[in-house]
Amino acid sequence: MNVKKILMPAVALLAICLVASALLAVTNQVTKARIEQIAAETENAARASVFPEAASFSDVKSIADQDYCEALDGAGNCIGYTFSTTAKGYGGDVSVMTGVGTDGSVRAIEILDVSNETPGLGQNAKQDSFKAQFGGMRGTIGVSTASKSADNGIDALTGATYTSRGVTAAVNQALTLFEQIQKGGAANG
Q: By the 8 A CB rule, do 181 and 71 touch?
């Protein structure tokens, strides 16, 4: 009798776990293609946002395991690059699309994902006033928490220094990748 009291709940829990796992696997298979399509559309929209004057973009290439595209004018000449980079924020990773001109300056940035950051603080990285600070910067960009920005630095979001540093790290990573391309770094994609 004691075996039945122990065995029946264990079998019921095992059945529930198997059914839940199977449903999650089916849901993943059904939605996987749509999620990938939405991610690609988001990245394409971000590329167009950071390089609005580009007539087209090259196929996605890779350098140092990071994706980038060349922004092309109407004649097919490279006018800059877009880099999709990720860095650690406060609540998780932040993803940024950075447009870098052929002169090595940041044209613009677009936030791809800060959904793990604190609402009302870190998620404010999506605001145009924060993103605009990166325009025209080159080299290594810093983050200032004081009322006055340091040279080649941006003002941190109030209450979201970690997020600000994460976005800045992603932009700095894009600038480093640009330098590698300029020095003839081998693309692997």
A: no
Burial category of 142 from C-beta neighbours within 10 Å (exposed 0-12, middle 13-18, buried 19 and up) = middle
pLDDT at residue 185, rounded to an integer: 58
Considering only CA atoms, give the Rg of the chain.
22
Considering the chain, what is the average pLDDT of its residues? 89
Q: Classify 154 as helix, strand or coil.
A: strand
**Does 37 reside within a domain?**
no
Examine residue 171 and state whether it is found in any structural domain, yes or no: yes
- Residue 127 domain-assigned (yes or no): yes
In a domain, 106, yes or no: yes
Looking only at the bridges linking them, the beta strands covering 93-101 and 78-88 are: antiparallel
Cβ of 170: how many Cβ atoms within 10 Å? 25
pTM: 0.78
**Is the per-residue pLDDT at 178 higher than 60?**
yes
Q: Residue 158 above 70 pLDDT? A: yes
Residue 52 φ/ψ, nearest 5 degrees: -65, -25
Q: Which tokens belong to 69?
A: 């595209």
Based on the structure, what is the number of domains in the chain?
1
- Strand partners of residue 70: 81
User: What digits encode the pLDDT tens for the residues 67-87?
Assistant: 899 999 999 999 999 999 999
Question: Domain span at residue 174?
Answer: 48-182
State the virtual CA torsion across 66, 109, 157, 142 in degrees, nearest 10: 60
